[in-house]
Amino acid sequence: CDLFRRDDSRPLAVMAASHRGLGPTRGQPPVYGDAAAISAAMGRAAPVMTQPGAQVDDDLHREVDQLRAELTRRDEVIDHLEVELRRVSSMIPRDGEVVALREECEVKDSRIQELTREVQKLRRAAATRGTAGAQSPRSPRGASPQASRVARAGIADGPVARYHAANQADPIDVRLEEFYNSTSSAIHFQRINKGLYRFGSTEVEVEIINQKLMARTENGWNRGKFGPIDKFMAAHEPSERSRLGIPG
Length: 248
Prior knowledge:
alpha+beta; five-stranded antiparallel beta sheet; 51% helix; 10% strand
């Protein structure tokens, strides 16, 4: 058969088409561009190629949707952080508020000093009118030994202004309240921090050592060592009273 001859160099499909009368005959140049005719001649339809651009468009659409979702999530995070920032900022006092509070404290301190002077004047007037020869004041019944020593130093009858512990969970502050309110000191303790106070203009460190309330200053008193707090008050009360113009 001429279709399967070895010496024919034409492709089999072209030879088949030529044999059936659909392609070029022997001696004519083959036509390779008509793939549909050749496929039809071979008994099958030409394959239909999908367009690559459609797949690329789908991928781009999916990527755009993912990016939009990610942007939405980031917007939610930003909104949450802005709300948190406003909440935290509202908790921080402004500089002006701090200055105003300090000025108010100074005004109240001045008022306390004025009232202290008035009380001392009234006490002195009462003593001048009819207390000549009266017994020296005694410390309150049940007062601690430290308070008794303060009373003997001339500080008794209860303080001009009672001290109230700023922190009931602080044993030093509670002990100081108990001790100070058993004296008649005219100089007030002001708590700065745990174990650190200001007695008038003197900064003092207070500790509980061997169950006793002890005090230490950096002004040379007691050679910079801890000493009983009643001795500290007896040493500093007169100078603080003199500074404030309070009779001793």
